Amino acid sequence: MRSRKKDEGNYDAVISRKENEFYMNYTNRKNLFNDGWEFALTAPDTTYEEAHAAKLDYKPVDIPHDWLIYDSDELYKSGCGFYRKYIDITDINTADYILYFDGVYMDSTLYVNGKNVCSWTYGYSSFQADISAYLEEGRNCIELRVNYVSPNSRWYSGAGIYRNVYLYKLSAVHLNIDGIYISADAESGDVYVNTETSGYGGNMPDLEIVHTVIGPDGNTAAQCRTDLKWSCVETTLHADNIKLWSLEERNLYTLRTELIVKMDGTVLDSSDDIFGFRSAVFDPDEGFILNGKHIKLKGVCLHHDLGCLGSAVNYSALERQLLLMKEMGANSVRTSHNMPAPELIEICDRIGLLVNCESFDMWELPKTDFDNARFFRETAHRDVMSWVKRDRNHPSVILWSIGNEIYDTHVNEHGYEIAEMLKNYVREFDYKCNAGVTIGSNFIEWENSQKIGEMLGISGYNYTERCYDAHHKKYPNTVIYGSETSSAVRSRGIYHFPADVPQLTHDDHQCSSLANSTVGWGKPAETAWIEDRDRKFCAGQYVWTGIDYIGEPTPYSTRNSYFGMADTCCLPKDIYYFYQSVWTDFKEKPMVHLLPYWDFNEGQPIDVIAYTNAPAVELFVNGRSQGIQHIDHEHGNVLHGQWLVPYEEGCICAKAYDENGNAVAEAERHSFTDPVRVCAQAERPVIKADGRDISFVVISVCDKDGYPVENARNRVNVTVSGNGVLMGMDNGDSTDKDQYKTNSRRLFGGKAVCAVRSSTESGDIVVKIASEGLESTEIVIKTEKCDIPEGISCSDHVECTENITGDIPVRAIKCSCENTKLDKEDPESEIVLKILPENATYSDITCTAVKDGGAPAPNGRAEYQDGKIKVKGLGDGKFTVRVYCNNGSEFPQVISETNFECSGMGQAVRDPYSFICANTFALSRNSVNLIENNSLGGFSAGSMAVYTGVDFGRAGSDSVTIYIGNCNNRDIPVKLYDGAPDEARLIDTLMFPHNNGWDHAEPITYKLPETLRGVHTVTFGIDDGCIFGGFEFTKTEEAYAELLPVYNDEMYGDDYTISGERIIGIGNNVVIGFKDMDFAHGAGHIIIKGRTANKVNTIQLRTVKDGVQKTQLLEFAGCKDYREQRFAVERLEGVNDVSFVFLPGSSFDFESFRFEE
Questions:
Q1: What's the pTM?
Q2: Burial profile 425-445: b = 16 or more Cβ within 10 angstroms, e = fewer
Q3: Mind listing the pLDDT tens digit for each residue in 931-984?
Q4: Cβ distance 4 to 133 under 8 Å?
Q5: What is the 3-class SS of 1016-1061, one letter each residue?
Q6: Catalytic annotation on 405?
Q7: Of 548, 661, 567, 657, which is closest to residue 610 (Cα–Cα)?
Q8: Which one of 258, 346, 358, 405 is the catalytic residue?
């Protein structure tokens, strides 16, 4: 370790560097520092000393590096990673060395030559470290300890040095990194500049700062020279004939700042900073105004992972995501919920996207056990400083978001203090207000959060559009926008019919792309857009989310999210085209999109949907018009075309028309047969040979006629040779457990994607793709010679798993059935199956009968036998037979449906709350006699009467009334069983007294030792001669009974475990819902029994009556043991849907609840 020489602050030392060839050329001040790193992984919390004593086995790695993505079975595994790199230094006395990390996740400590330099805990903010005093002449060892302890995030974060690293080599007097602040006035052309320097002191020569504004054309637009008197210099330049930065015209200016010795013109340091002239105004009544023009923010939220690349940042992959969103019509992105990579901001500047730049997902109160709340109090200021100083000059940045769904903002007034503190921190470094300060809140319905929104002046609303109008009136000076909207879920190429039946969850653990899959806190995309569209004061919206991300697989516990407009491969889902239809102008670029794909069972009713930005659309089936539908995009409430048509092989076509009836766009979907060959297309057939550029190759298969097989699941194997490497593969399927770092994946929705990276040698990359039983394909990606920056890191080989062969999954099950109308005389039918392709290697076929929405159908039964489905109708009504093939996976991958209708059979389920006659038994043991009045007699030892399909519902019953005539002169036992005789479980023995009932039956009511819920087979065992007239149960008044949360109508979310009749470990975004609860007597209180380790666990009680939602907060106080807590609620009347919503940061074990009048 060295100390600075005494003469380094004087003129002689500055000049001597040039004379002795130690002069620092400013053009080399910033050097990429990604090469030469090695990595070793140890157990979490391993200390630096322990790691050195263990003599770790280091392996070379490329930087950026995400160590978790290499094992997708352990994406959240805790570990402590150690990075090291050796460098040779020959001028330690004549230069300052500063290491700059764009991002390290998380809790990192930097060591140089064994000395602790600094620690940086937050995984998303950039940081720099002056290592000059720790360097030695010759060889130096730089090490970074990264301690990743899970859980520390609500989504996949990745781990390691996942962004770029730079080494700055600077003169003793230099410009501070991120120390130049620019604020450009779009009206006057004035450019305010504040320049920070380091190292300037007494006995130095006269220095000056020269600022040069370089226009988009490369010419000088303005220049000024300012003497350096202090470490900080303020000045204002003026440029004439300025060109504004906008979404359409991305005019970018460069401010060149030079630190110069006045005496001889020696340039000690120089920095180029990008900026733009633009006016961004948020108005409480007009919304958002850019350069004097009203613009509705059409935004998307984006997480930071890049699919199969994990969180390791790559410019090409990031640009691909952003261009995809812009093509959809988005004009803004929200960097949810953290500081983005600097590349994202640079790309948005260049392509024209506005940025809501976010910082924190938690403050002092944690959402997971090991998240940044551990460090927030001590590090918030430096994190904000790093964030704002790095990004404040960029014209694309219009908002600084200080947090998302922050629990601190709700629980007490300290949250307001933190919010005000963070706002002040932002303004400390962006005092010219280049961007506004905001927050995204899901607590905005309550006073504390409203006050914070008012204080900030720009308030983001997460899923609370219902508050817009009232809050706009209540807070007339506050700007309102939707910081998160919709949260609808869907899987690419998955359709759960019918479209008009909401189906959040399904057997296949996928979500429907028919716009009928929405989480409890969200809304369908169409509804959410209309609510923002129709309010001018609303600045716009940020849809959750633009692209699927790893983690938060609501409503399941699979791998990645379902919220995106595109999947993790960046392949658009159908909903992508809905947003394109409402966010783009058909007069500029007309479009129409048609769904679903066209391959179903003959005659099956299919919902066909068309999205278009044109005013009208017409559907054709094999050339026959199904009618024209008109769409009013400005004022209408239905923004798509929709038809119900029976499937027939052939072609469906949608034609879009302008206001004069002229066709402006057309889309087709064709029936297809089994695939015969593999197809592939490189999204970028020519890339740079810089060792970083990536081309994504979209893989599909087509049939003998060249039509894409859009439900294919074939496994494809990829081989890359030449001047490139395979970086990974993905298919967007959240249920797929294959590795990301692999050369073998199944298609999903007929597609998969592989990422191919260039080397540093120009030439050809050859990509060969094969699939069992199909004709393979080969494509060539050209790589062009280019300048290659020093410090690049690009291995010739990326670790991938080996080919998998012999795997031919089923893509479809064709069902044919001659009779789908069943009745009492003909209650049975048969479905003949055809498995496609016929050479599939899987035959794991199962089936079931369901109602619309997927619940078991009580009136139908299906059984798979010898390649056919035996179907039997059990009662009146409709049901659907679903046939499944899992393809060897945990969940069904292929589902085929056939609809049935039964009539003349009577009801399939019995209502236990109405009298059930004894003679309606399903079967009996030991003969009994049918006697008058629909009663039974002739009982003897071992007699049983069995009643199937008794539906007690969710509330259930613990009280039964039985009608018996007993003239035995003694009490007789009546045994009540749950189940049929061979598997019956005794519930209770009911002693029925003598009542002289020789010719009639009389009732007696009994309290049972348990509550019967759901559908049961009820059996009565009677050994003595008597008359059995029948029975009825008393329905529990559900709203006032003690209810167990496990008996819910729906439950989904990120974290929970069912433990017996309790739900424990309830964490982020869990919803437990109960439908149609009847508060006949009203209710003003709720009692919840549970426990929480939190000081307070906030539970949202959401009720919906007649389509109107109300949300109330229940603050459950912390307790170690289960206990009841009572809460007053706004009075409930009539029939309501009731949901318990557990927000981020929850940690709750739920035993029971009940309402009181």
A1: 0.92
A2: bbeebbeeebbbbbbbbbbbb
A3: 888 889 989 888 999 998 899 987 789 999 999 999 888 999 999 999 988 889
A4: yes
A5: EEEEEEECCCCEEEEEEECCCCHHHCCECCCCCCEEECCCCEEECC
A6: yes
A7: 657
A8: 405
